[in-house]
Design a protein that fits this description.
single chain, 464 residues, Uridine Diphospho-n-acetylenolpyruvylglucosamine Reductase, domain 2, Uridine Diphospho-n-acetylenolpyruvylglucosamine Reductase, domain 3, Alpha-Beta Plaits, 4 domains, seven-stranded antiparallel beta sheet, 15 helices, 16 strands, Oxid_FAD_bind_N
Length: 464
Amino acid sequence: MGSYVEIIENLTLILGENRIKTDLESLKIWGCDRTRHFDPKPQAILFPQTTEQVQQIVRLANQLKFAITPSGGRTGLSAGAVAANGEFVISLDKMNQVISFFPADRMVRVQAGMITEDLQNYALQQNLFFPVDLAASGSSQIGGNISTNAGGIKVIRYGMTRNWVLGLTVVTGNGDILRLNKGMVKNATGYAMQHLFIGGEGTLGLITEADIRLDRVPKNLQVLVFGVPEFAAIMPILSKFQAEIDLTAFEFFDQRVMEIVMAHSQLQPPLAAPCPYYVLIEFEAPYEIILEKAMQIFESCMEQGFVLDGVISQSIEQAKNLWRLREDISESCAPYLPYKVDVSVLISYIDDFIKDVEKVLKQHHPEFKICWFGHIGDGNLHLNILKPQNLDKDEFYAQCKHAMRYVFDIVEKYDGAISAEHGIGMTKKAYLGYSRSDEEIVYMKRIKSIFDHNLLINPGKIFD
């Protein structure tokens, strides 16, 4: 490995002095994501402005043998962007512009550091819609979303980030620039390599540009919140609505979550009395008949005992406040230092899966207080374990890691995924075998070595 002084001197020739940060505060800020399991220890933070500068940095890394950690909006929850072992961080913060807009294709080419919310607003200015919507849309970046194949609250209608990526420009770990798929909907010319980088957590190289597909703007969105007597009633509600209406969102959360959100965000209770579980439903109602159909389904669910009470938004402002009950969950739970787990199983298994998880946690860790919420309409569940006051952080995380063996045993039992949308990073790599076979992991490592001969790009993520 080249000396630190030699590396910095060469990086300065590429970027200039003003695009390199080495002060302790910057190292701490850009060296981590939202996980707190690992202490950031980067060597320096680099801010390239072009794909070519990224390429020069990566080629220098291969020459002088130093490791690189890509960094986007730093909103990840699996330590996929944490530089814990002396890596040099490449931040995409300065690569945040729209490059080209293709109206006939409903496509926009953007730099990977563009903030999700900025892309959403740009799409609306073109009378179009970018549907990937996350709690962290105001700070997450497109490149990071693509690298984790982010999901969010609209997956039931629009699918994952992968569905909206038509092409990528990447710098591989070997320092080559590849333009993958070039924005085409149809391209039957061999391997679709862009899909290796979508969800690849920056382990194969760095995404620098993305061709993003846009959609029409949804019309007259309606939001319903139902109080539900038991978890077993949630899936029948989903089935009834999906049989008649194309939903844009179907979310759930429990009463403990509701109490935490209302206390933190000072929102008013949506219903007259507390309920064990809540369901939030969103759908388009451009025609009155769709709204009438929704009310008929609601009444049917009430008659069958699936719903105890409900409310429908009467204005845009009320719709936003109902959505805040779901969108404010992560921020509201943060003071409890929750251990966050996102998993997915087939919708058919969700009821049994939750029962099994609650049973095993009660048996082995009765002191844990758990919160359930998630994008249940696509099989994605978020389990948050709140830190007991009598445990310090390290002991709490140690107990949670012990508990995860039991939880992931159940994930494996139902052929599920130990990560639905947050990625593996470092927090879950020890558990990868619960969702991936030994043979799959061998192939994944071989793919990594092809794109990154010297294993210098985001080392230690997904697997060792």
